[in-house]
Amino acid sequence: MNSTLPNRGSNIPYTFDPGNNASVDVGIVSPANTTQDRLVVGVDFGTTYSGVAAVYSATPDDIDIIKTWPSGNGITSDKVPTEIGYSEIPSSHGSSSSLGPTGKAAQNIKWGFQFKPEETRLRCIKLFLDRNQKLPHFVSPLETAAQLRKFDKTVMQAVSDYLAQIYKHTMETLTRRYGETFISLTKVEFVLTVPAVWSDSAKDATLKAAEKAGMGKKHELKLISEPEAAAVYTLKAIQPSHLKVGDNIIVCDAGGGTVDLIAYRITQLHPLRVEESAVDHVKKRIGSERYNWMREKKAKTWNMGMKYFEESVKRNFNEEEHSEVNIPFPGLPDDEEAGLDSGFLVMSAEEVKALFDPVIEEVIHLVEGQVYSIRAKGGFVCGIVLVGGFGQSNYLYSRMKSHFNSAPPPPYTERPTHAIALSASQSVEIYQPIHAWTAVVRGAVLRGLEGNMVISRRSRWHYGTSYATVFDDTKHPMSDRYWSPLWERWMVSDRMQWHIAKGAQVSESRPISFHYTRNFRPGQSLIVEDDLIACDADVAPESFQKGLINVCTLTTDLNTVPKSLFTRLTTTKGVEFENLDFTLDMRCQSAGLVFELRVDGHPTPMFGILVHTAPTEPTRSSSLDDLVFGIRNFVYSESAKHQGLTKPEQGN
């Protein structure tokens, strides 16, 4: 085999010392640079609604939530609809539309609250970034594709356009709040939230869209998973005095489309289908013919009813206070049998409960499983915190409290015994923070301001790269060997080096180092690729084999490395080539992996990581225990430290 051809395992690693990747405890890490005045802006780019929060570093407790939005009619809202639409700008000269600078028809953008009920718009566009995500019933992929095609847009461009509107409005609001001089002199940092189960490519696309929207260069933007952001805010907000080291707080993030359970980690992701149940109920009550007529001809009526259900019934319903609920559907004729009276659909408390109960029972079941899991390991669950849109629900709170808080709580001055911890009757307090709906975006700004709250994560998979090494007939099959004309010896490729073992703890503050040596013939490209590979088996194989998962491809541009750092070598046949030893340092973050290229112990200034290959199967877990969340471009500072390890005796 010609060693200059790209093949799996063309790198020779240095000796890897797993002892350098030590475990650490959970706590709060402050960033290195906390003295610089800066504005941290958190953006919760949600499926149905998006929110923005900002905080000035000098007043960290004063978190501002943007509540006023274009065309909001003076009504304040903690969030804005994640909706965007396009229309062609009419020409002033009589033609159908005016032309933009590119020669295409100029377009007008509407977003958020700017739509009339009957106007077409793109909804839940975020979900189209990840092919694994299920679309809600009210979003048609065909209609979405038609709208994008009509205005010559891609999903990425539509997301970028929406984030650009968010960015523009945010900066205008901050300028009014702090003044133009202050904004011009103060660094503004953006932190974006992403779903924990977002694919690597979807996270990369989100970063690219945010960069194009003006929120900063990709290497300056920070990502945090939505459930971890909720946990960051929650643990800071409630601060119950009886919390002790070793206690467990479960955060139940019940949002617009999912339920996330967090106990210092995400454990479950299950669909939340309250809205779909409501649609089915209305359709059943008024009949398919009238339902279809209202959806097609009376869009304003339909949207008003669903808006009321989302903002009032879903959050405020309480069976002890409401004997019935009246949902407005103005314009619909009275129908006593269907329950339509004076433009309202009358629902009894029992009918509303019938919509909520299946979802709430599932939430209780999931939380109960997590509580039992913690107790089975000797842990003590002292509280369950409800956040998210549905987390504000009075009915959810009362049901959770009734189920988990039926027994009197144990004295807080005593640590529970293992037997008490496993007791089914043990009471668990239920917390419902005041700002449950904005917990994610508040957590995002706290993460950007104070640094990472989760210091260590446990890997559920092995992660490694393949390499080539000198052939050893006592270890390697004869059929695997090939002759390397550069090293002038028999070699074998596809050997696996596992940099992170399954079950190992990894720290964001301590990098995992990948050490390589690579050869280049004169004129050969200095852009090299390496696959990051994962293995779910308990014992990882020594060589690459079927069933291993290609997480992504790391593309390294070595053109920026000074030529003086390359070693020039010559074979016995007079063939000249260059050799370079280099290191990739990998750090685990909440929603991504950050890589740094080092040569001779020094970081290089221009190093890119590009996601070329999606996982061959969807990432199966959404846990903070899981290491690989995403890959992103990064320009590296000079402050990182180099860990010197032993160089191998042979190279490729």
UniProtKB/TrEMBL annotation:
<dbReference type="Pfam" id="PF00012">
    <property type="entry name" value="HSP70"/>
</dbReference>
<protein>
    <submittedName>
        <fullName>Uncharacterized protein</fullName>
    </submittedName>
</protein>
<dbReference type="GO" id="GO:0140662">
    <property type="term" value="F:ATP-dependent protein folding chaperone"/>
</dbReference>
<dbReference type="GO" id="GO:0005524">
    <property type="term" value="F:ATP binding"/>
</dbReference>
<keyword id="KW-0547">Nucleotide-binding</keyword>
<keyword id="KW-0067">ATP-binding</keyword>
<dbReference type="InterPro" id="IPR013126">
    <property type="entry name" value="Hsp_70_fam"/>
</dbReference>
<dbReference type="InterPro" id="IPR043129">
    <property type="entry name" value="ATPase_NBD"/>
</dbReference>
